[in-house]
Amino acid sequence: MSKTCDAEVPEAAALRRMFEIVAAISRTDAEFRKLLLAGQARSTYYSPKGQECISAGIGALLRGDDYVVTTYRGLHDHLAKGVPMRELFAEFLGRATGTCKGKGGPMHVTHLATGLMVTTGIVGSGLPIANGLAWSSLLRGTDQVTVVNFGDGASNIGAFHEALNMAALWRLPVVFVCHNNRYGEHTRYEAATSVAQVALRAAAYGMPGCTVDGNDPLAVYGAAQAAVARARAGDGPTLIEAMTYRFWGHIFGDDMRYMPAEERQAAMAGDPAVRYRNWLVDQGHFADADLAVIEADLDAAIADAVGFALDSPPPDPAELFTDVYAGEAMRA
Amino acid sequence: MTETHSAGTRPAATATETRRMTTVQAILDALDLSMARDPSVLLLGEDVDDAAGGGIFHTSVGLSGKYGEARVRATPISEQAIVGAAIGAAIGGFRPVAEIMFMDFFGIALDQIAGHAAKLRYMSGGQTAVPLTIRTAAGAGMQFGAQHSEMLESWVCHIPGLKVVVAANPADAKGLLMSAIADDDPVITIEPTLNYWVSAEVPVGDHFVPIGKAAIARPGSDVTVVTYGRMTGFALQAAAELAAEGIDAEVIDLRSLVPMDEDAIIASVGRTRRAVVVHEAVRRGGLGAEIASLINEHLFGQLDAPVMRVAAPNTPVPYAAELEREFLVDSAKIAAGVRELAKA
């Protein structure tokens, strides 16, 4: 049976780190949407706004050498793992200075130095790959953990089921994190999924599963802490389902008619980034002015990163033919 | 099948002593040597460990005992999970060899193969190499029916980022597999099922056949037969028959489909001015069309006849032995094609 994971209030450093991540995601997302609307960026963009507390709760727990795999809606996970903003914005803008030399784009960010291993554009496909990364750390004898993020829609694709079975069978150090944002593309969760909660599916594979409030970084942190500890100790994988909501629909700019307006307005009114900030101040963990300093630093870093990206050149045309195979560029 | 590769066109082997063995033994030898020389080489797939018999074709017998079950892992029947785990391990610094029992099952894992293994180096701007080998049995002739008999090399040859090799004999099965495992890119090694039990001399010890180099399986001057895999044996049989009729056919065994040894094809057809492309896969969209186009692009105007394709009809592989024989390309069909072309 699935249960709601217990949450305890983490120490101040973790609270601060989670705030930094939440604020970075929220502000970076807003900036990129602005660039799209201004015509300075053109790409399909899957905004993670509304889901930032999930990445924050996990990101605050991971080490630099842990692995993260995510999806096309992945900006929150990129930032939480520490992918540098300059390279990230440059990649989103398709510049030579991007994480992937402008050859991946928002849907395919990889940044080995920070352990952001794969960003896939294919629903569910990251899960089997995460198993292999986890197998590699077992073989090396390290206690690295692999976290793989995916949406609720991915829990209905075959790769999810194959991957959970194999991970449990092989006791792999993987944390499966389902960002349940209530929609798979334009279809409501209930219309596509046979169980009330994705976490119920963990039982079918003999692994622990839990559902948490994904809009509460403390709840996510608590669940992830147990799951990461289990993985590091060699006790196998965990499925965490974090309940959340995506503010900007499937693709930023879609008409969102499939999402009831009042439902979306209610979610936005309860903006988890704002809620967490208020909680930190109300509970006396940080003074408003302390958080404002963090925010001002983030805004400066984002402005610097956007400037860097806009000033960066596009990839050289010869880049078309490099990195297809190892070694020299292929013949044109 | 006879071993008639001319020594002059074969790359120098790293070992000169040979031993007679089947293709199955040659593959097992390649896996064993690769695992011994490089501790990062892993093996995974359905039934590959000793408890399950060392693979349904016995190509991994003894390896889980010798190298441990951490490196030789039998998997659930989960092709996406198998290839996905292999990709992750490859990105994580290992050299996994994944076995997909039959190439027909590529459909189940194609997103991992074509969407991920092939593209992760490119999409990451060169950060994530995927030194992965996928071994798979393919081909008809054993009445396995439509879902366990297909040659689907076109599927994977179409995807940039993958390399694709097919051996025609036990020595190349060993040499191409060792090269595939040592290669820094994802390589698909297609193993013609009926070749598994064919015996021939195989170099002892490490043996690497370079990926991207064709072999002139039989030199000739009248017409070039371009082929690969199990069809190479049939082409050689056909060439022997045709020699008695005064037609001297050259047989090119491509060995590597991606990258393809285009220079070898163009040089040969440039001399013979006539080309027959032979493959076991169905004709439509097959590699024969690609090779015919390559020849036309380079030699149009110098050809004495249009490039001919000898391939299977555009049908599923049938079950009944009579129908399957009708479906399959064989030496008689190749000989008929070459005769027709030689007269043109």
Question: How many discrete domains of chain A?
Answer: 1
H/E element order of chain B: EHEHEHEHHEHEHEEEEHEEHEHEHH
CATH class of the largest domain in chain B: Alpha Beta
Coarse structural class of chain A? alpha/beta
- Class of chain A, according to the CATH hierarchy? Alpha Beta
Derived structural class of chain B:
alpha/beta
Q: Estimate what percentage of residues of chain B fall within beta strands.
A: 15-25%
CATH superfamily of the largest domain in chain B: Thiamin diphosphate (ThDP)-binding fold, Pyr/PP domains
Query: Rg of chain A to the nearest angstrom?
Result: 19 Å
Strand order of the largest sheet of chain B: 3-2-4-5-7-6-12
In CATH, the topology of the largest domain in chain B is named Rossmann fold
Helix proportion range of chain B: 25-40%
Characterize the overall form of chain B.
Answer: globular
CATH topology tier name of chain A = Rossmann fold
Question: Using DSSP, what is the number of strands of chain A?
Answer: 9
| Cα shape of chain A | globular
How many distinct domains of chain B? 2
Instruction: Give the name of the CATH architecture of the largest domain in chain B.
Output: 3-Layer(aba) Sandwich
